[in-house]
Prior knowledge:
Blueprint: H1 2-6, H2 40-51, E1 58-64, E2 70-78, H3 88-97, E3 102-109, H4 119-135, E4 139-146, E5 151-153, E6 165-166, E7 174-175
Parallel strand pairs: 3-4
Antiparallel strand pairs: 1-2, 1-3, 4-5, 6-7
Amino acid sequence: xxxxxxxxxxxxxxxxxxxxxxxxxxxxxxxxxxxxxxxxxxxxxxxxxxxxxxxxxxxxxxxxxxxxxxxxxxxxxxxxxxxxxxxxxxxxxxxxxxxxxxxxxxxxxxxxxxxxxxxxxxxxxxxxxxxxxxxxxxxxxxxxxxxxxxxxxxxxxxxxxxxxxxxxxxxxxxxx
Length: 176
């Protein structure tokens, strides 16, 4: 393999490109009070500066290590005034590269001070919880921010519970 990578290509040969994937530091945000991100308030302390004064929607992932210390933040998507699109592939690329053990998803509602989650917010949360379970990098919270720094935790609202399946034979008992 080494010979192929280092040799000169001939015109009649077919080549497959080799890639190196890396994470590049692009800036810093203030660390949370204390050392750990073990509550929505501490996650908000890290993420609030990224949303303050934003004129469009952003989706941001905060990667955490095994002790819930922040590893880094990654802007997953930048949308329009009232929407943005999130795909799990963009979410987990950065989380895997930063060796995240768990993560917090956050997005903002820049068009007003409304912290209520929409149907779309709930659908994205369900999709990210399912993808997180598949990737074994649990989503520990989903925060919604306003441009003035207020936030709401969808985890505290009970929307991060894993999807429940119903068994048909035993009277609708749920199983995790």
